[in-house]
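ok so for the tutorial part 2 we go from a plain amino acid sequence to predicted structure tokens. step 1 is just haveing the sequence, like this:
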Amino acid sequence: MGQHLGKSSIRLEKPVYITGSASVVGKKEGEGPLGLLFDMVGEDDLFGCETWEEAESSLQKDAVYLAMEKAGVKPMDVDFMFAGDLLGQSIATSFGISCYEIPLFGLYGACSTCGESLALGAMAIAGNFAQKVVCVTSSHFASAEKEFRFPLEYGNQRPLSASWTVTGSGAFVLGAEPDGKDNRRCCGSTEVSGEKTTPVSKGARARITGITVGKITDYGLKDSMNMGACMAPASASTLEQHFIDFASQPDDYDKIITGDLGSVGQRVLIDLMRERGYDISSRHMDCGMEIFDAESQDTHAGGSGCGCSAATLSAYILKQLEEGNWRKVLFMPTGALLSKTSFNEGKSVPGIAHALVLESCL
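step 2 — the prediction. this is what the tokens look like for a chain of 362 residues:
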């Protein structure tokens, strides 16, 4: 079980383990600084499909399969799935993972969905409601532009404050035990696309020991082309509450990692935290700034989208924890809670952020 801390946090009395994960990304992401770390990189962003939305569904399907294979589990071994995306009615999720026939909790936290899914999955396991769960989310540059901004054919110009929606998906298998096994089932071989493999669990990549649930934070900003500034106040709110609830300080973490603030949002977050008495400048890292090269790739403020933090977590952050380069990090994906309807009606862009304490198993 877990211990409720302060206003918004939970300390897990028994850790929940990330026993397997996988990342699938598009061509542009594969050409970035983390390109060699991703499990699968598409040759083109349609991934053999006819539409951008179908391509995003393919991202989730492949990421879930690879994560389960690496964790040594099959769909029948999984109790629940926590999943979502950016599209209306979460169609990338519903069409992408229906083939696995796993009981599903569909989520929407915008770009914070990776954090939300991991938090809820960890709580389900910590509460003994599940032994294994899968958490997955995705985004696609072209489907997101079509959903929230302009179709690609329009050729609109983007301001320098704009971020580039990551084409990618990250999937994670959570378990009550570090080896990914439980007492009810055993693992066998799996077969997909005619290729038969025997998955072998190699132990946990990291463990989840704490959660801080974010609240909706709205500073009245209305610029959908400056998502970093819109989401930074929510990040600051969650981060401050985390420090208060856990009686911790920035130096307690090797890295404090946000999801999608980019270069503009990073500066806003650091300033907001200094106003609250915390200096995170030496510890802060943003997935949107890591996944693309600011000099050679024209992504303006950096990366965003559900797939940004999810793919970076699987490919890079967990690798650092797995190898013992980092011992403890705070992972905090950020989301902008807008829609076409709210934007066209002149509403502001509220934000939300959920934080998880991830620790090395070494």
